């Protein structure tokens, strides 16, 4: 069986510019630290540590939940797995502070995320994301959509000089968004017949 140890990122990183920049800086420092280490392999979408259970760090931080491995057993001892776990945890803590939650089963500590969640995210490391452009500055910087989170309306009614009153967008509205749906106040019978018999 063995004993696992590592760290979880809580809360997980977003796709926002701040988290992307912090994650890139973290990955860069890990790569520099292990530049001459043959046990750290740079793959197209992640760093692979060929020690213990082969922990990985994706290049897209929003996919990351956990860095861990078995630290007991002859293979873990011969490849010094615990040293890799401790060093990467230390570097992550320098970049992300209290978001990094170390854990160690040898002292009855378990990770925050379930193994099912962790394995699902690890499976996504191979496929880079194909994100569309952000719709607002808040979405770009913080990976949050204030319209959805605040349950705010996309538009407001305003007076338009020389034209009367009209609907004016309050935010960039994504193409295909439903803006207004109303039931008709009056329906003419011939309209109903033409709608039912196309």
Structural features, described:
The chain has seven helices and eight strands. It has 198 residues and is of the alpha+beta class. It has two domains: 4-124; 148-179, no CATH class. The strands form three sheets. Strands 5-1-6 form a three-stranded antiparallel beta sheet, covered by helices on one side. It has a three-stranded antiparallel beta sheet with strand order 2-3-4, with no helix packed on it. Strands 7-8 form a two-stranded antiparallel sheet. A hairpin with a 3-residue loop joins strand 7 and strand 8. Helix 1 (17-33) runs antiparallel to helix 3 (81-96). The radius of gyration is 25 Å and the shape is elongated. The N and C termini lie far apart (68 Å). The model has no long low-confidence stretch (mean pLDDT 80).
Strand order of the largest sheet: 5-1-6
Largest sheet report: 3 strands, antiparallel
Strand content: 15-25%
Head-to-tail CA distance between termini? 68 Å
Strand/helix succession:
EHEEEEHHEHHHEEH
What does the overall shape look like?
A: elongated
- Structural class determined from secondary elements: alpha+beta
Q: Measured on Cα atoms, how large is the radius of gyration?
A: 25 Å
Overall residue-averaged pLDDT value: 80
Unreliable residue runs:
none
Helix segment count? 7
Could you tell me the number of beta strands? 8
* Number of self-contained structural domains: 2
Helix content: 25-40%
Describe the secondary-structure layout:
Elements: E1 4-9, H1 17-33, E2 40-42, E3 46-49, E4 56-58, E5 66-70, H2 74-78, H3 81-96, E6 100-104, H4 115-124, H5 137-142, H6 146-149, E7 155-160, E8 164-169, H7 189-196
Antiparallel strand pairs: 1-5, 1-6, 2-3, 3-4, 7-8
